[in-house]
Write a structure and sequence with these properties.
binds cytidine-5'-triphosphate, Spore Coat Polysaccharide Biosynthesis Protein SpsA, Chain A, binds magnesium ion, 242 residues, two-stranded antiparallel sheet, globular, 12 strands
């Protein structure tokens, strides 16, 4: 059965904040995590739920990325990305097949997104939402700065951190990118919202965190190490704290 959903995966970023201590820099999407790259993990997280996967990669990494994805469970199209995340998504979107009705856009840098989050996003699209965003409560106390550098606390209970995959009716996403071909929106929902389309929030998950800094990669490595120990029965399973 076809799902009518395509996954667009922007993976053309430079990973500047992650950095790379090795002599030959490896693009962030190809950094390894528990024996598989961030990109392969992100593609695998979505591939069971979609008919088509399109990855945007940097122009000088196309062959490397194609090789990396050759053994994935689904065929993956790799297209040249742009200088910004927004342009990478726009370019990948152009390769989505015509009959596809829905698109989920997922950062290659969120390799541990749980399948429930993907399922919630797609279910909300099928339920009639045009734009769906997984989000989680903010845990830190927050302050906002004014132009004079003075800061005031803001009520974190009114805020949510947004994640991916973000889901869209394809026509709505294509139109939003057509209206704003340039620019540097850090997510697609904010772009579509500018065109006046309401956004539906669904529950995200802490595990869908984005690997941005070296600490994030270390946390992901430790999480996977713990998971594989639990699977092998060497440590007791710990129930997540609510
Ligand atoms: N991305 C992209 N094209 C760009 C910039 C970003 O496809 N020109 C992708 C990244 O590969 C990543 C996602 O958008 O999967 C989220 O971006 P981010 O976490 O900021 O990754 P980078 O831009 O690679 O990292 P940095 O900003 O630290 O350089
Ligand atoms: Mg970036």
């Amino acid at each position: 059965m076809t799902s009518g959903v395509a996954a667009v995966i922007p993976a053309a970023g430079l990973g500047r904040r992650l950095g790379d201590q090795s002599g030959t820099p490896i693009p962030k999407a190809l950094r390894q995590l528990g024996g598989r790259s961030l990109l392969v993990r992100s593609v695998d997280a979505l591939s069971g739920a979609v008919d088509q996967v399109v990855v945007a990669a940097a122009a000088d990494q196309l062959d490397l990325v194609r090789e990396e994805l050759a053994d994935c469970a689904v065929p993956v199209q790799v297209v040249t990305g742009g200088d910004t995340r927004q342009s990478s998504v726009r370019l990948a979107l152009a390769a989505v097949a015509r009959p596809i009705q829905f698109v989920v856009v997922h950062d290659a840098a969120r390799p541990l997104v749980p399948p429930e989050v993907v399922a919630r996003v797609i279910a909300a699209l099928r339920g009639g939402a045009a734009v769906v965003v997984p989000a989680i409560p903010v845990v830190d106390s927050l302050r906002q700065f004014d132009a004079d550098g003075r800061s005031t606390p803001i009520d974190r209970s009114t805020l949510r951190a947004v994640q991916t995959p973000q889901g869209f009716r394809k026509d709505v996403l294509v139109e939003a990118h057509r209206r704003a071909p340039d620019g540097d929106a850090t997510d697609d929902a904010s772009l579509v919202e500018r065109a006046g389309v309401p956004v539906t929030l669904v529950e995200g998950a802490h595990l869908a965190f984005k690997i941005t800094t070296p600490v994030d990669l270390l946390v992901a490595q430790l999480l996977l190490r713990d998971e594989s120990r639990r699977m092998s029965g060497s440590v007791p399973t710990v129930e997540p704290q609510r």
